[in-house]
Amino acid sequence: MAEVKARPIASFPVASDLPRVRSGKVPELPILEKRNWLIHLHYIRKDYDACKMAIKEQLQESYGMCEYAIYVQALIFRLEGKIQESLELFQTCAILNPQSADNLKQVARSLFLLGKHKAAIEVYSDAAKLNKKDWEIFHNLGVCYMYLKHFNKAKDQLNTALELNRHDLTYVILGKIHLLEGNAEKAIEVYKKAVEFSPENTELLTTLGLLYLQLGVYQKAFEHLGNALTYDPSNYKAILAAGSMMQMHGDFDVALTKYRVVACAVPESPPLWNNIGMCFFGKKKYVAAISCLKRANYLAPFDWKILYNLGLVHLMMQQYASAFHFISAAVYLQPRLGELYMLLAVALTNLADAGNAKLAYQKAAALDKYNPLVNLNYAILLYNQGEKKEAILQYQEMEKKVNMQKDSSAVEFDPEMVDIAQKLGASLQLGESSVWTKPAKDAKSKQRGSSASKSAGTQPLGSNQALGQAMSSAAGYGKTIQFLPGTLTPGPICA
What we know:
Low-confidence stretches: 1-19, 438-495
Mean pLDDT: 77
Radius of gyration: 34 Å
Largest sheet: 2 strands, antiparallel
Distance between the termini: 110 Å
Strand content: under 5%
Shape: elongated
Oligomer: single chain
Strand order of the largest sheet: 1-2
Number of strands: 2
């Protein structure tokens, strides 16, 4: 018989080996990040005092080695405006975790807020080496280069950011750089792509409409501004721009209705009161115009366009000393605009200071290569002073400018200006000139002349394109003036 082998008996632990009964208290674990959840909870609830207390306890237990607690403390310092303190804490986070691109991004952000753009670029470049797919890094690099005026590098970085991930803000900055370069057409292309990507973004629609308004493409400007108002009927920028368009076409009452809506949203807007003042100017309510313009000047004392308008209205009211005061201030703020010197010369002429008026006209003629009224008024002054040869030279220069404008576009000159120019030509024994031949009737007028005594049909000051009529004792002429490169708000004068 086969032997029956005894199976081994399972061994059971003796009584002394039984497990101990667990207590109800969870054992303390030496984890550095055990309060991170509480810190995060207080931070997102914006309960910063409680958050600081939790951070303090966490840092005491971890001996200052908890990266997340330091990170959140730095964010709170930044919100409180303590940028330097936040920079030091973010640098500590970068030392604790040198492979974190987020820590380097925050260090660079603090450097940017401190105005240290070159240092920020260096740190962002290090962060880009750690994370080559983060669009935000390249976007911020583009912004830093923009502030350093390295526009080509800025555009390269922003285009890289758009290739990684398309965002509205990147399009806005890229379009702004084109405007700083004075290339409005490129800026329009960028904003058109942005609108295709985000068709309901009212800021993009408004900016694109203002750019079209600046270029004189009124149909497209009205279309985009209308779309912006469709999505946001209370968008005061779009309303102000639409009112400016109506104001340029002489619909002062309708424009004032629009401005009334804007006044409820931004009652302290200098461009708003500037445009309201020029609506009253167009309606020949000069006292009301001066009141509104002076309020605009109080809100924005260094806006040369408002000072320009104040000087113009005072010239219309024959208050030449006040006009000289405001125009002189505008010249100081904008010394490269020839029309300002012409208005200054008009005021000086009426103040019986022919010598300084002549100097002002010389400066205006040297700066302005477009407006024939500068040379016409200068020729009249020289003729009245008995300097016939110099007057003939200025008259001939005026004719060259007129011919140049007629060749480039269909322009209608103010009849009063034409009449005075012909009378001056006859007085100078030059005969009637063919330069005043009227353009074809079907040609669209892009700009119209205006005189000192012209009625409400004049182009109002305060819009982006027509900063106003330049007036003189002789004649007036409304010139279309584009914004200078570097203005951060294209379109009508708007907040």
